[in-house]
Amino acid sequence: MHAFNRRQFLSSTAAAAGALSVPGLLPGQIHASENAAKVASSPLLRGQAEHVISIWLGGGMGQMDTFDPKAKGDPKNRKAGSYYDAIDTAVDGVQVCEHLSQTAQVMDRVTAVRSVNHNTIDEHAAATNRMHTGRSVSGTVTYPSLGSLIVHERGAVSDDAPPYVLIGYPNVTRGPGFLGANSGYLYLTETGRGPAGLSRPDGITADRQGRREAFLASLRLSAGETKVRELLDYDDAIQQSLKLSGPSFNRVFDLDREPNDLRNRYGGEFGQRCLLSRRLVERGVRFIEVSHNLNFLNGAGWDVHNSGILNQHKLIQELDTSLATLIVDLEQKRLLDKTLIVITTEFGRPSGFDSGGGRGHQGSSFTCVLAGGGLSHCGAYGQTDPQAKRIEADPVSVPDFFATICAAAGVDWQKNLFAGDRPVPITDQGTPIAKLFA
């Protein structure tokens, strides 16, 4: 059993008792306290996932147009509601948007967490930071991203692979923050080739590379030891680059080795990114982020203000094809229970339409998605009102969502890290969704 200190015991029991005794609390708030009490009275939750594939939908996915459909609205007459019809899924009572038809068939391996919420200003940069680090921007501490937290605690699965790969453009919100460069990422922006800098230029033979490495080693010996963290991090980065620059690791980026039929099922560039993420999992990468904010499909990506919503279905269909194929592909290779798939976005969208027929921003209630990872999936968790604006049951804060991911990936979500001498809770006091670990 997990040992609880006096503070944890008092806080958990007080939260549960207080929620049930104070009049006027919303049902969702009571459910949240019940979940916290259930977790506090159980052993430390720890899942079996060895890898995480995190799909980032930059711009803000509208929940009622994807995984939390409501009654259909009418943008022309400014009637609030979903933009598309809803369809049934493999889970009784759980529906999704009509353009998620392939994902609907595998929803028994998925949980759409419909009650995620945060109080960060509904602005892209601030919300992107919140959904990557679990915290608001601080003037004193640069917090690490979720990917960096997990690789800091678990490391790489294999010594022959980097622990953290970003398929998309680099950004400080994806970075290691106060954890240092060892918990950082390797990134690439296209699937046609590996990360820049890991392949030798055409004019550099193996012998010449060997001479360069020998010269570098002699420089290290002459420089002597150092305790300067920045220099040590730089040296570690060089060593990892040398280890990964050979043909062995770079073969993972050769998608032509995959059957044409499978590549076609994954779909376009985003699908190929998802296929590459599966290959990186096989190679031993712990955490992979895959960006899906390809604006050219509808001119706006997931940020569907005004006319950007007209072709939103193309984004949803691409997500549907790639996600469903990834789930089935991992399952067929016996990797789904070991690989947690996560879908996040900055915020959701209100059910009402703006003057141009699109939608604004909404952080008070939105949907994030979990799949695989050995969790006890239920299709959907949390309940929102008919406008997907107010949470009616089982609210999940961003720290709660992060705690769920950490627990699934075998990370102690109650642990403190340290920014210098300052203790920093890994998940900002989040509590995992106990139902998914039943």
TrEMBL record:
<dbReference type="Pfam" id="PF07394">
    <property type="entry name" value="DUF1501"/>
</dbReference>
<dbReference type="InterPro" id="IPR017850">
    <property type="entry name" value="Alkaline_phosphatase_core_sf"/>
</dbReference>
<dbReference type="InterPro" id="IPR006311">
    <property type="entry name" value="TAT_signal"/>
</dbReference>
<protein>
    <recommendedName>
        <fullName>DUF1501 domain-containing protein</fullName>
    </recommendedName>
</protein>
<dbReference type="InterPro" id="IPR010869">
    <property type="entry name" value="DUF1501"/>
</dbReference>
